């Protein structure tokens, strides 16, 4: 089935815009493919170094040019719940590869930081750029040129985008992404949010807050709300980079292990040494990228991907823009309600039908390109399934259920929760910004109020505690962009602004920073570009200026006469406190080189 005309039209304009860069990229991929198999170009000394630590069987196999070798890139660490399950994956993958007649080696590790730990702390200012460090770290691992395919073990916020940038940079290699899955359900997300608001108001203490948080984040796996980590997993599946049905299986279960073994065998099958060669640089094209954006809208996914998808697409020579993302949002209905866009978590989403149901509904209604290549073969229709454990311990699949298991969580394309997706571009005399509307009630999507200007989230929180914010206002939090301080998430503002909104106040946020996949019920114009440090008009707003945020019309404006805002001198902020501590001094060069948010905010290329 072909995609709807509006989807085809947006895809075609991306294709036309990308022709020069995409052609240059594919030329590089084909030149690298022509050098296969890679180990053949290594001298005997090079190759001996590459398999010196292997056992006798693997040494014998790697001495041959006809035995495929998988490079494992892992984000394992045992401090963070999402990455801890990867501890056992290398041994599992090596055994599965050996049984299938191949070899697997850990090519390298990449850093994996958790925004949940660093939220509101100095370390958060390293977070966005960790994506680029991850891409470069993976490149170092794969640069040994020992490998015929790669398995990427990653889940969370910046890790998967960084790994995909690396995978596409090594586009001559097949690449499969292997997830660890979400933790089992704990304290309901709405109850967690309620306790957070009570704490912000001083009605409960730290002990009660910590107890609630610990019941929410309680075991191995990703957080269960639909933030960037779980949006990543949705993206990898709908873009054909997972094996079908792999995204939301809980860690440390027989099915999770069976899927990992299966991914290993599949990686061996799609190398240049087999008959189904699927290099990721050929596989991912404009249609794949559009499918990812469609999935993001249909599920109300993370605002972070308005940055990451642009950077990931660029790694394949594809020029995606915010306008493309916004226009796709206008065309794609919302089919999932997962916290913060609803009360359910990702385990409930999976139980209701999950990715197989979602992909089938979007395909049948013409919102997705079906004729794409995937790691599983030709066509996305193979992903309209649910994965189960067979009696022999392998993966069995059955067609996705015809009806949702819970139509309050997952619905059909004919009865969507809303006719458009959850993200929109705002434009006006302040610049361009992104707003996530799927969690914002319709009556809260148009806000007009005077500005109160802050240069940090700490300033805003201090004003709240001092009782200075019990009124209608638009919080302008600036000097939070990539060049200023690395563009940290301002998640700590969610609770405070939510309290004020619940008190009946009209509030909104305008910032050149990020708010993350946890962006919630308060209207927030984020990623404002140009940022304040880059000469953006957000740096010239003054207290009392009336700001109108209209998420329906797609506008963001200071209500001043023509030229008044631009005529003001830009404010100079003291950013010395962001330059040192927790490693921030090592990232000065990346801040200086960072692209604008609308261009992917990358610090290289």
From TrEMBL:
Q: Which InterPro entries match?
A: 6-phosphgluc_deHydtase, Dihydro-acid_dehy_C, DiOHA_6PGluconate_deHydtase_CS, ILV_EDD_C, ILV_EDD_N, IlvD/EDD_N
Binding, [4Fe-4S] cluster: 156, 223
Q: What do the Gene Ontology cellular component annotations say?
A: cytosol
Give an example GO molecular function.
metal ion binding
Per the UniProt entry, the Enzyme Commission number(s) are: 4.2.1.12
EC category name: lyase
- Which reaction does this chain catalyze? 6-phospho-D-gluconate = 2-dehydro-3-deoxy-6-phospho-D-gluconate + H2O
Domain of life, per the record?
Bacteria
- Iron-sulfur keyword on record: yes
How does the cofactor bind to this protein, according to its record?
Answer: Binds 1 [4Fe-4S] cluster.
Purpose: Catalyzes the dehydration of 6-phospho-D-gluconate to 2-dehydro-3-deoxy-6-phospho-D-gluconate.
Write down the HAMAP family for this protein, in alphabetical order: Edd
Protein name from the UniProt record: Phosphogluconate dehydratase
Q: Which organism is it from?
A: Aquamicrobium aerolatum DSM 21857
């Amino acid at each position: 089935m072909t995609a709807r005309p509006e989807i085809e039209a947006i895809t075609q304009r991306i294709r036309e815009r990308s022709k020069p860069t995409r052609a240059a990229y594919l030329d590089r991929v084909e030149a690298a493919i022509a050098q296969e198999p890679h180990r053949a170009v290594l001298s005997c000394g090079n190759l001996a170094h590459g398999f010196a630590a292997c056992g006798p069987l693997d040494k014998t196999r790697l001495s041959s040019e006809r035995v495929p070798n998988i490079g494992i890139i892992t984000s394992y660490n045992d401090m963070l719940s999402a990455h801890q399950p990867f501890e056992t994956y290398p041994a599992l993958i090596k055994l599965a590869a050996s049984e299938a007649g191949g070899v697997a080696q850990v090519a390298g590790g990449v850093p994996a930081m958790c925004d949940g730990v660093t939220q509101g702390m100095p370390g958060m200012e390293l977070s966005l750029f960790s994506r680029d460090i991850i891409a470069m770290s993976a490149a170092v691992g794969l640069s040994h040129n020992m490998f015929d395919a790669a398995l990427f073990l990653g889940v969370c916020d910046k890790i998967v985008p960084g790994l995909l940038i690396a995978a596409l940079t090594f586009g001559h290699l097949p690449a499969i992404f292997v997830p660890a899955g979400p933790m089992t359900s704990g304290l309901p997300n709405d109850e967690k949010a309620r306790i957070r608001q009570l704490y912000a108001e001083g009605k409960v203490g730290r002990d009660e807050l910590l107890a609630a948080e610990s019941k929410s984040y309680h075991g191995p796996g990703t957080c269960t709300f639909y933030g960037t980590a779980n949006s990543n997993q949705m993206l990898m599946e709908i873009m054909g980079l997972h094996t079908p049905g792999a995204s939301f299986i809980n860690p440390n279960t027989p099915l999770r292990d069976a899927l990992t073994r299966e991914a290993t065998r599949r990686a061996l099958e799609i190398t240049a040494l087999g008959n189904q060669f699927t290099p990721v640089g050929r596989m991912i094209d404009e249609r794949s990228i559009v499918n990812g954006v469609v999935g993001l809208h249909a599920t109300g996914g993370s605002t972070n991907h308005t940055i990451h998808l642009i950077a990931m697409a660029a790694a394949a020579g594809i020029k995606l823009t915010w306008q493309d993302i916004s226009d796709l949002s206008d065309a794609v209905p919302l089919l999932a309600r997962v916290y913060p866009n609803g009360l359910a978590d990702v385990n409930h989403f999976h139980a209701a039908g999950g990715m197989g149901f979602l992909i089938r509904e979007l395909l049948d209604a013409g919102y997705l390109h079906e004729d794409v290549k995937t790691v599983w073969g030709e066509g996305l229709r193979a992903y309209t399934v649910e994965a189960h454990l067979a009696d022999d311990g392998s993966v069995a699949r059955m067609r996705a259920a015809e009806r949702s298991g819970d139509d309050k969580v997952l619905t059909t394309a004919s009865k969507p929760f809303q006719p458009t997706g959850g993200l929109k571009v705002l434009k006006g005399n302040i610049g361009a910004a992104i707003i996530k509307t799927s969690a914002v009630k319709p009556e809260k999507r148009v806000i007009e109020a005077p500005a109160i200007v802050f240069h940090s989230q700490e300033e805003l929180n201090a004003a709240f505690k001092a009782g200075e914010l019990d009124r209608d206002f638009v919080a302008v939090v600036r000097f939070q962009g990539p060049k200023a301080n690395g563009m940290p998430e301002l998640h700590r503002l969610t609770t405070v602004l939510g309290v004020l909104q619940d008190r009946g106040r009209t509030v909104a946020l305008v910032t050149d920073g990020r708010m993350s996949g946890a962006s919630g019920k308060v209207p927030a114009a984020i990623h404002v570009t140009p940022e304040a440090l880059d000469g953006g008009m957000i740096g010239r707003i003054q207290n009392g200026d009336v700001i109108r945020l209209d998420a329906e019309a797609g506008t963001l404006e200071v209500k001043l006469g023509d030229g008044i805002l631009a005529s003001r001198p830009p404010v100079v902020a003291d950013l010395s406190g962001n330059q040192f501590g927790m490693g921030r001094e090592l990232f000065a060069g990346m801040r200086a080189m960072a692209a604008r948010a609308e261009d992917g905010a990358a610090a290289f290329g």
